Amino acid sequence: MSIIKHKDLPKWLDEIIYTDFGAIFEPHPQDVVYNPDQPYEFVRIYLGTYFPRSYAEAFCIVNNLFENEKFLSSIYALEEVNILDFCCGTGGEIIGLIDVLQSKLPNLRRINIDAFDANPDAILFLYHLIEAVVESGNVRVNININPQGLYVSSEQELSDLVNLTNVQYHFIVSFKALNEFIQHGTFKDKMFIH
Question: pLDDT band at 3, cuts 50/70/90?
Answer without folding.
Answer: low
